[in-house]
Amino acid sequence: MEETVARPVPSREPQSPGYAPSRAAATRHEADVYTWVQEQVALLRAGHVDALDLENIAEELNDVGLSEYYRLQSAIEIVLLHMLKWDHQPERRTRSWALSIAEHRERARIQQRKSPGLKSSLSEVRKDAYRLARLGAARQMRRPVKSLPDECPYTWDDILTRPFDFDADR
Fold first, then answer.
1. How many of the other CB atoms lie within 10 Å of CB of 31?
2. In the prediction, which pLDDT does 20 show?
3. Which of 76, 122, 157, 164 would give a disulfide with 129, using CB separation of 3.0 to 4.6 Å?
4. Which of 42-51, 52-61, 73-82 ranks highest by mean pLDDT?
5. CA 91, CA 107: separation in Å to the nearest integer?
6. Which of 102, 93, 111 is nearest to 168 (CA)?
7. Which three-class secondary structure state does DSSP give residue 25?
8. Measured at the alpha carbon of residue 26, what is the angle toward residues 68 and 22, in degrees to the nearest 5?
9. What does each C-alpha distance from 91 to 33, 35, 104, 124, 166 come to in angstroms?
């Protein structure tokens, strides 16, 4: 087992121009991601590009992009789950469903605003989110998955703007 040495949390202030952890003493990505990130940031800020762990940096950047995708997908999944329940169980509609739809629509809008590059993936997000929402809705409604449409029956416009006014249904 590898011994971990306690290190002070690096400050966000720029390091001195000559600062760079030696490659021999550098933390391995697999051993301590947080410390590794701090060391990579220090190397980058110091201009020591040749000492960067480029393979793991590329992997981490890819993970950041995927995280943005999954954040949007998760918000749309919850909207779709409640839309399915709303449409297939009108007798059980609640204010909570309408508010959850509103909340997660806003989360999706924020995510799209903060990561406009996701626009090219919206079709894939909708498909992925619907597959998960369909399973979740079937489980929550205690009905067979096959009782819900195979393909997403909602357009992006439906997902983001269709009215869900609980009080109007009463």
1. 11
2. 47
3. 76
4. 73-82
5. 27
6. 93
7. coil
8. 125
9. 50, 54, 22, 32, 12
Place of tokens 């195979």: 150
CA pair distance 31, 36, nearest whole angstrom: 8
8 pLDDT exceeds 80? no
Q: Say how many C-beta atoms besides its own lie within 10 A of residue 98's C-beta.
A: 19
What is the domain partition of the chain in residue ranges?
Answer: 69-169
pTM for the whole structure: 0.75
Burial class (CB in 10 A: 0-12, 13-18, 19+), 86: buried
pLDDT at residue 155 in the model: 97
Name the amino acid, one letter, at 55. E
* pLDDT higher than 50, residue 19: no
Place of tokens 């709303």: 86
**Coil, helix or strand at residue 79:** helix
Categorize the per-residue pLDDT at 167 as very low, low, confident or very high, splitting at 50, 70 and 90: low
Averaged pLDDT, 104-129? 96
Measured distance CA(105)–CA(159) in Å, rounded: 8
